[in-house]
Design goal:
This protein has 497 residues and is mainly alpha-helical. It contains 21 helices and no strands.
Amino acid sequence: MTASAATGSPMTTSAATGRPPALRWVLVLTAVAGLIVALDQLVVATALNTIRQDLGASMAELEWTVNAFGLGFAALLIPAAEFGDRIGRKRAYLSGLLLFAAASAACALAPTTGVLIAARAVQGAAAALLSPAALALLTEATPPRRRGAVMGVYAAVTGLAVVGGPLVGGAVAEGLAWQWIFWINVPVIAVVVPVARRVLTEHTGRPAAPDFPGIVLAAGSMFALVWALVRSGSAGWESAEVLGTLVAGVITLAAFAVRQATAAHPMLPTRLLRQPAFAAGNLSTLLLTASLFGTVFFLAQYLQVGLGHSPLGAGLRFLPWTATLFFVAPVAGRLQDRIGPRTLICAGLFLQGAGLLWIGVNAHQHQGYGASVAALVLSGVGTSMALPAQQTAVMTAVPPALMGKAAGTFNTVRQLGGALGIAVMAAVFGAVGGEESPLAFAEGFSGAVIVAAALAFTGAACGLLAPGRPRPAAPAPPAAPVGDGTDRAVEEELGAH
């Protein structure tokens, strides 16, 4: 490994050619990985009814089919990012792909819902290893002046999962069998792995002693918090299980924060949390994904239960909302390089909230799908504007040696947001509506989506903390030496950021 690889510098070379890897290849390989992970979070939404009929699953088991992935993903993201920094981000990327393929095959072969839920949890663990490594590899390979545009393309490609998830799930469940929503991952990964082995460059983070207490506290806190959010719908917020795990998660998270402030080699330096761009990107992402994932979960069911569409028909009706990611996100990414992330985050989340509020009012008035098409487009445009700006705000707030940790934190926040959104919206759905009739479902959906709009508006306010128009880049400092001075050099780079 070269010295530059050890310090996390992007100036490394491909093992196969001796030259720096072409950015387009790094973008393709990392975006495909992001697409696979994001697709499997959403693809089951429109296939749930088919899975219930085939495996005899209860509603609680169906919820765990969705949430087991997020639980494994969120609980292990920060430790997995730390692990990837040590073994090398290319190795973590390849290992995550192979584990994801094996878990996908296990999902497809599952004879019972219990096996399916366990395999989904392993998928989430594999995604935790894969996602931060992919995002860090892409950020390191991209010149700073092009990061906005590249992140826009990355967001658009991974956003295809939002476009394709409900549509693919509905089409496969109706035309083939639900198992094929998982089998499709295996041949795709079989093609990607040998190309990635040849093309990608190895990078590592700081060569410091592992923070084992920090790893345990990070995993434990995320597991407890996501468990409480997932179980809040069926067990109730006032139950001993939910309250106990929620309190345990908060206490463990506080212990993790104390550990990071006092550890010699912290997993997540506390100065990083005080970076305005890092804080704004993560906080607004938490609220965007809470609004987005909660809406996807309930909209797929509303289109079928409330409006009577088939699984494929429901997936097709997502397109006015989700297809905007493919067209708007690349433009927003290029625009961000000139105007900075603040405007795009604030305006994007405001539009997302306005569109969702419009949809909620239409559902309350029991209007048909056609009345909400323009609202879906408006909300989708807003989401597409904000996503690449949030990614860039977080990843450019840190020096190269901490990009793996930044990516792990960013993806952890996204998973917490998704679990939070579904839990909060489920509570509202149950309070104002129900599943006993299409009209009751519409009332519950309306209340839940109006809450999603409020989350988006709050995220727009958080975006005000993000940096505005970028300043001209300063000359790059000399590479930090590997050894005892690495942590000090990283802290100095954080101050410069």
